[in-house]
Amino acid sequence: MMHGLSLAPRYRLDDVDPWLLGIDPSRHYWLQVNGNPQQRVAIPGVCVQSISELREIMEAVRSLLPGQQLQIQRAASCLEIHCVADNLLAIAHPVDGAPTWHLFDRETLESLVMSAHPHWQCRPQDVELGRQQLWQSFQLPVAA
């Protein structure tokens, strides 16, 4: 049985509606989906150990052509970036259990990836976003 693919709206830096809630210290991108404050997701972002590693990832993102995808491994997850068109990129991450592609223009996605810089620091209020995610993980059962 085939499952449908949901699309979130295209996020842009100049959007009037707030969609980026923050980027926590572990580089999760916290998004408000479809302008709904009740529908938030924490997408695992890019984490690097060096500036040269960040350059490699930025070059890989910039070189994506329509139809190509890039997978960036994290400790416990993988960030999957798809190039849909010349100025349209998508990050695959589920919303409420449904597979979803979050759409970005190239400038916006590159700005998010730049937060992986080793010297980047999040806003003080974004630390709380990371605490919320950690607290939620403590609520999950360890074994099924």
Give the SSE order as H and E letters: EEEEHEEEEHH
Cα(first) to Cα(last) distance is 25 Å
Radius of gyration: 15 Å
Biggest sheet details: 5 strands, mixed
Q: Can you count the beta strands?
A: 8
Mean pLDDT: 84
Helix content bin:
25-40%
Strand order of the largest sheet: 1-8-7-6-5
Describe the model.
This protein has helices at about 50-60, 105-115, 125-140, and strands at about 5-10, 20-25, 30, 40-45, 70-75, 80-85, 90, 100-105. It is α+β, with helices and mostly antiparallel strands and about 140 residues long. The radius of gyration is 15 Å and the shape is globular. The mean pLDDT is about 85. It has three helices and eight strands, in the order ββββαββββαα.
SSE arrangement:
Blueprint: E1 6-11, E2 20-23, E3 28-32, E4 40-44, H1 51-62, E5 69-73, E6 78-85, E7 88-92, E8 100-104, H2 106-114, H3 124-139
Parallel strand pairs: 1-8
Antiparallel strand pairs: 2-3, 3-4, 5-6, 6-7, 7-8
Helix pairs in contact: 1-2
Can you tag this structure with a few keywords?
8 strands; single chain; three-stranded antiparallel sheet; five-stranded mixed sheet; globular; 144 residues; alpha+beta
Q: Can you give me a brief rundown of this structure?
A:
The protein is an alpha+beta fold and 144 residues long. It is 26% helix and 30% strand.
